[in-house]
Design brief:
By secondary structure, this protein is an alpha/beta fold. Helices cover about 30% and strands about 20% of the residues.
């Protein structure tokens, strides 16, 4: 039931944690993940393809206008193209048969798009979690736990 997620460098860190500790974290939320040449982060697609499949579920989102790999001198470096590297990782996960979902927007590198779709990402990641049908289960029906239960009028 544990998941981990993040944005930008936090997204690749979350993926790395789940990759190395799938017994503890099986759900990964990645928003504008920095799977680029920061400490060799662009190698994850090859790692995914070369490794045994791990029991993780991954939701990635990014924008077509995220950092696109143009260096200060105007040259293009695909290892620094955030969008391209997220697509590469998605393709590797899909090819290997992972439970993966992704969505691409037109956004820049930031939180707006991921924040807007956060509820959908969470629902997808935990879509098979148990659901209580007990109408008196106030823990399930509340964001604040048992203290949020209304007074018993019986």
């Amino acid at each position: 039931m544990h998941g981990i997620g993040g944005s930008s460098s936090g997204a690749i860190a979350a993926f790395a944690v789940a990759w190395e500790r799938p017994s503890d974290f099986r759900k990964v939320l990645s928003n504008v993940g920095s799977f680029v040449d920061i400490e060799g982060g662009y190698v994850y697609p090859e790692r995914v393809l070369a490794s045994d499949k791990k029991p993780i579920r991954v939701f990635l989102c990014d924008g077509r206008n995220d950092h696109r790999g143009f260096r200060p001198d105007g040259s293009y470096d695909l290892k620094w193209d955030w969008f391209y590297q997220n697509v590469r990782l998605t393709k590797a996960l899909t090819a290997k048969g992972y439970d993966v979902n992704y969505t691409w927007g037109m956004n820049l590198h930031g939180q707006k798009f991921g924040g807007a779709i956060m509820p959908d990402m969470m629902r997808w990641l935990w879509r098979d979690a148990p659901v209580s049908l007990d109408p008196n289960d106030m823990v399930e029906r509340s964001f604040r736990g048992p203290a949020a239960a209304p007074p018993n009028k019986n």
